[in-house]
Automatic annotation (TrEMBL):
Stated name of the protein: VOC domain-containing protein
Transmembrane segments: none
Pfam families per record: Glyoxalase (PF00903)
Lineage: Bacteria, Pseudomonadati, Pseudomonadota, Gammaproteobacteria, Oceanospirillales
InterPro entries reported for this sequence: Glyas_Bleomycin-R_OHBP_Dase, Glyas_Fos-R_dOase_dom, VOC_core
Residue ranges constituting the VOC domain according to the UniProt record: 4-126
Length: 138
């Protein structure tokens, strides 16, 4: 198996609001998709948005999850200033800042926000291993 994450699907409570948050608020490029789901192209992977209850039903698990899920998404950027910019952009789009951008113990700079459905996103700059754009052909 060639290790790779092809798509990340988030369960959302209000698909229209979530689409607006990611497409207009964060500027994610939306792909054509059926009305019950939304797909966005990321650099080397896709982000899918699907109704919370529908996603739980599809996975055959209870939909009443609560609290910390032990899961976060990360977006790495090339500078501390860009961390601040992305966190500000998310806040303006309706996100909640959970951890203001700051220097962190591992030598980088990061902050966290929650999207409209409480999914945690870390925005980070790591001067030791900046991961830039992914080659779509690999």
């Amino acid at each position: 198996m060639k290790p790779r994450i092809s798509m990340i699907t988030l369960g959302v409570h209000d698909l229209e609001k979530a689409i607006k948050f990611y497409e207009e608020g964060l500027g994610f490029p939306r792909m054509e998709s059926p009305p019950s789901v939304a797909f966005f192209t990321l650099n080397g992977t896709w982000l899918g948005l699907y109704g919370w209850d529908d996603l739980a039903e599809d996975a055959q698990v209870p939909a009443n999850g609560e609290g910390f899920s032990g899961f976060s998404l990360a977006h790495n950027v090339p500078s501390e200033a860009e961390v601040d910019l992305v966190i500000s952009q998310a806040l303006a789009a309706g996100a909640e800042v959970v951890k203001k951008p700051q220097k962190v113990f591992w030598g980088g700079y990061s902050g966290y926000f929650k999207d409209l459905d409480g999914h945690l996103w870390e925005v980070a700059y790591n001067p030791l291993c900046w991961v830039g754009p992914v080659d779509e052909n690999t």
